[in-house]
Amino acid sequence: MKKIILTTLAGVAASLLTLSPSNAQVREEARDMSLGRQTALVLELPNTDEKFANKIWQDYMNDFYDSKVKWNRKTGEWLADDAEITALGKGQSVDLYTVFKESKNAVEIALWVDLGSEFLSSRNYPERYTDAEKMLIRYSLEVAKASVKVDLDNQEKELSRLENEMRKLQNANDRYHKEIEKARDAIRKAEEEIAKNEKDQEATQDLIELQKKTVEDVKKKLNNLK
After folding, report:
1. How far apart are alpha carbons 163 and 169 in whole angstroms?
2. 189 part of a folded domain
3. Number of domains in the chain
4. I want to staple 98 with a disulfide (CB 3.0 to 4.6 A). Which of 78, 81, 105, 115 is the partner?
């Protein structure tokens, strides 16, 4: 059981390290999307899946920027339309397009920021691009926090299961001790009964011997009368 707990803790520690936002690196790449080939910010999220990353992105945009994210089935993109993000729009609303791509052990998020006249790039809007990077890094922190919360919930459930198992083992141990004590009492009583039985046998044997003598005496009387 100790080995199981240590292995579990090691797994949680590894998850914390791999999910740490300090390891996150945003790349700038030209990517194809519904409005053509545009500059995107790309970030890899380790040890998660697409469904989880999508959910956290929707919560993140709603909680931090009061912006609703909607799925466009035709384009295969998530769209935050007319998002009011001051650091990116500088007083103007922006459209955020995101695509999630799941690989073996990670999910890649590609983010395009439509400023209206053009898409955000580090070349034309270095300050805004830096803020967009920070936005993605902050999002990766939310993913990490949510992942750890899921881990914590799972580990608490496992702890509860182990504690319940321990209670069952302790109850069984108490029951075994009681059964042993009952068995010992039964053995003591049986030993007492054996001792009494042996005395009764001795007494009965004496009676048998007396009865044999009585029988012989009666036989002699009978023979004398012949």
Report:
1. 10
2. no
3. 1
4. 78
The full DSSP string for 187-211 is HHHHHHHHHHHHHHHHHHHHHHHHH
Pick 1 or 148 by higher pLDDT: 148
Q: Is residue 75 part of a domain?
A: yes
Query: How many whole angstroms from its chain centre is CA 153?
Result: 6
**Residue 37 falls within a domain, yes or no?**
yes
The DSSP string of 64-91 is HH----EEETTTTEEEEEEE--HHHHTT
Range of the domain at 38: 2-154
Which amino acid, one-letter code, is at 42? V
The percent of residues in the chain predicted with pLDDT above 90, rounded, is: 84
Question: Hey, what are 52's tokens?
Answer: 């989880």
For residues 140 and 23, is the Cβ–Cβ distance under 8 A?
Answer: no
The DSSP element (H or E) to which 107 belongs, if any, is strand 106-114
Going by the DSSP 8-state scheme, the letter that residue 44 receives in this structure is E
Q: Are strands 26-33 and 36-46 parallel, antiparallel or unpaired?
A: antiparallel
- Residue 17 confidence (pLDDT): 44
| 42 falls within a domain | yes
